Amino acid sequence: MEYSINSNIIHRIMNHARKLTKGCGTHCRDFRIMTSPMREGTLVLRWTTINIDNPDRPLQCYRYACFDQNGKPEQCSVYYADNAEANEFFESLKTHYQQVFSNDHKLLKHV
Fold first, then answer.
1. 25-28 CB contacts, 8 Å cutoff, 24+ apart
2. Where is mean pLDDT largest: 19-23, 75-79, 84-88?
3. Range of 89's domain?
4. 48 in Cβ contact with 61 (< 8 Å)
5. CA 71 to chain CA centroid, nearest Å
């Protein structure tokens, strides 16, 4: 069965992403709303930060935030005890919504 996220919930989560972008301090992009069987009942927002302070060696990292099924932020940790457990989580993530920049959902009519 395909998982579907209500457009109001997408807007709620992506409005939170806009706040994250304002305080980012680096370049933030590739926002994805995801789920994982390892986090039942949780929507995971993943985005990429790119620090180009040193153009010869840019640093790229994934960041995560958790939300309940209604799009309300909740505290969670995506840190794991070892690489095997972390890889299991990363491989279990399934993308249900994606946009490049945090404000794109305000420009699209279908969301």
1. 26/50, 26/51, 26/52, 27/51, 27/52, 28/63, 28/102
2. 84-88
3. 7-100
4. yes
5. 12
This prediction's pTM: 0.82
Q: Are 47 and 63 in contact (CB under 8 A)?
A: yes
C-alpha 86: how far from chain center: 16
Work out how many domains the chain is built from and give that number: 1
Identify the band that residue 1 occupies on the pLDDT scale cut at 50, 70 and 90: very low
Distance of alpha carbon 76 from alpha carbon 64, whole angstroms: 9
**Residues for the chain: how many in total?**
111
Structural domain contains residue 60: yes
Domain contains 107: no
Q: Is 82 inside any structural domain? A: yes
